[in-house]
């Protein structure tokens, strides 16, 4: 499965809104199925952006978010604003699927700095 940067952002936004310190919750993101969201929660957990719970049995395997980590908050602070998000995605263009996550964070931070009047 390919990484979907828009889904990643939505997962982080929902986790910030609904997350707790102790209990996981199921995501419901329009346009995405459970397998897609679960996979992205898993890779966000592996990358250190979320605390998550792995739920599995014979019939299925699922990952549900619990809360954001410090890194998750840092990324979301850069990606939260729709204008910044869309500028960064537009700047990257059709190369978005091949751009690494760290590069995306750097581009987002440039646009955030510009919003505050700092030279990029």
TrEMBL record:
Domain of life assignment: Bacteria
InterPro entries reported in the protein's UniProt record: DUF2513 (IPR019650)
Pfam families linked: DUF2513 (PF10711)
Protein name: DUF2513 domain-containing protein
């Amino acid at each position: 499965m390919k990484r979907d940067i828009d889904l990643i952002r939505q997962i982080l936004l929902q986790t910030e809104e609904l997350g707790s310190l102790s209990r996981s919750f199921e995501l419901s993101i329009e346009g995405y199925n459970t397998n897609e969201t679960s996979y992205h929660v898993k890779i966000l957990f592996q990358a250190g952006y979320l605390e998550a719970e792995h739920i599995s049995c014979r019939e299925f395997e699922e990952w549900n978010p619990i809360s954001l980590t410090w890194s998750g908050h840092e990324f979301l602070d850069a990606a939260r604003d729709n204008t910044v998000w869309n500028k960064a995605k537009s700047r990257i263009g059709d190369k978005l699927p091949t751009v690494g996550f760290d590069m995306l964070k750097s581009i987002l931070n440039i646009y955030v700095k510009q919003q505050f009047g700092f030279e990029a």
